[in-house]
Amino acid sequence: MIFDRNRASALMESSEVDLLLVSSKRNAAYVSGFLKPGSYSFEADMYGLPDLIFVAIPQDQNKDPFIVLNTDNQLELYGELDSWITDRKFYGYKDYITDSFLENDPIGLVKKGLEERSLDSSTIALELKENSFAPDMLPVYVFDKLRKMLPNSKFVDGSRIIQKLRIIKNEEEIKALRKVAQSSGEAVSLTLDLIDEGVSEKDVELKLMQNALSQSILIECVHLMFLPSKIRHTNGQIITHPTSNTFQRGDMVYMDIVSRSKLYMADMSRCKFRIKPESKVSQIYETLYDANEEIRKSIRPGLKCSDIARMAQSTFDAAGLKPFIKDVFGHGIGVSLHEPPYVSLHDQTVLEPGMVLTVELGTFVPKPGLFI
Asked: What count of other Cβ atoms lies within 10 Å of the Cβ of residue 259?
């Protein structure tokens, strides 16, 4: 189990909370180990039932947690992304042939789970406020129904508890993040080595997917460009997704991928030249590469994210370059691709042991037309 229940219980106790009830997709995955299929947290299933998920974690560790979810997720729950939570309460169709229901009220199952644990008159922390870890707030109709079904309970916002849990990774989380990053690096390296004249970006994308599967990772997004030939291929447009454009002598390969292994993400960019580029391009590449290395070495507890961002900005200013994204030079990563803290001039977060960051120094060179 990756989730640190001891730390969660301590945070709940200090917040005078009896139960943490999580309902957004990524936070539910973080707490339970189960990543709910689909793009959104509160969508309807194919039969029009609300496709809600609830993960209930009592502060008292003598009381078992439970998870409530749609029967559409039953097969996935017992598959690769298994949950450490053994009390699983399903609602939705039980028999698709006879159209019989197992249970059609997920909130009623939440109430049942709380009654079984004598927590139906307790202080319950919900995802009531939007933040970087919980962008999908609990819908108003769900909150209203919870209040009606649990009239003796007190509801408070639990976003701060979740943020404190997720922003500091434990050893198992760091191990998972290292593994997906290393595996992604292997897949990218294997793919880059195969690129030669006449190969198309779409061919490379397919090979990348195959190499990723061999490393037991899933590619969620690929940006791939052979530059500067792609600028000519697209009549001057900057299209980052793979096209039929083929690799030409003198091109640079720009590849940016988002990958996942089970719950944890990797974010990786690579540039590769087949022949030595002109001196101006080499100088820009070396400047950004050296700065990235120096910044990574300087990161330590006690440093502010804004301090790291200022180091990065000074590199661009000294070289007369503009960064890809103004004021932002990296971000936290974990169960979500982008999560706090952010390497931004506006983020005053003080780094602590267990925080995991990306450092991203990139620029666009209009002539000859390269992303570095």
From this structure: 26
338: tokens are: 């982008």
Closest CA to 154 of 110, 114, 121: 121
Helix (H) or strand (E) holding 93: strand 87-95
Q: Answer yes or no: is pLDDT of 76 > 50.
A: no
Residue 56 C-beta-side C-alpha neighbours within 13 Å: 31
Convert 33-49 to b/e letters by CB count within 10 Å (16 or more is b).
bbbbeeeebbeebeeeb
pTM recorded for the entire structure: 0.88
Closest CA to 134 of 162, 108, 154: 162
Between CA 298 and CA 304 the distance in angstroms is: 11
| Predicted confidence (pLDDT) per residue in 8-43, tens digit | 999 999 999 999 999 988 899 999 988 876 555 555
Domain 169-275 indexed as CATH 3.90.230.10: yes
Query: What residues contact residue 334 under an 8 Å CB cut-off, 6+ apart?
Result: 30, 166, 169, 173, 177, 264, 265, 356
pLDDT in tens, 334-343: 999 999 999 9
339-353: average pLDDT: 95
Give backbone dihedrals phi and psi of 148, rounded to 5 degrees, phi first: -70, -40
The fourth-level CATH superfamily of domain 5-167 is Creatinase/prolidase N-terminal domain (3.40.350.10)
Q: Cα–Cα distance between 212 and 219 in angstroms, integer?
A: 7
Cβ atoms 293, 112 nearer than 8 A: no
- Cβ–Cβ < 8 Å for 83, 67: yes
Q: How many CB atoms lie within 10 A of CB 98?
A: 8
Domain boundaries for CATH 3.40.350.10 within the chain = 5-167
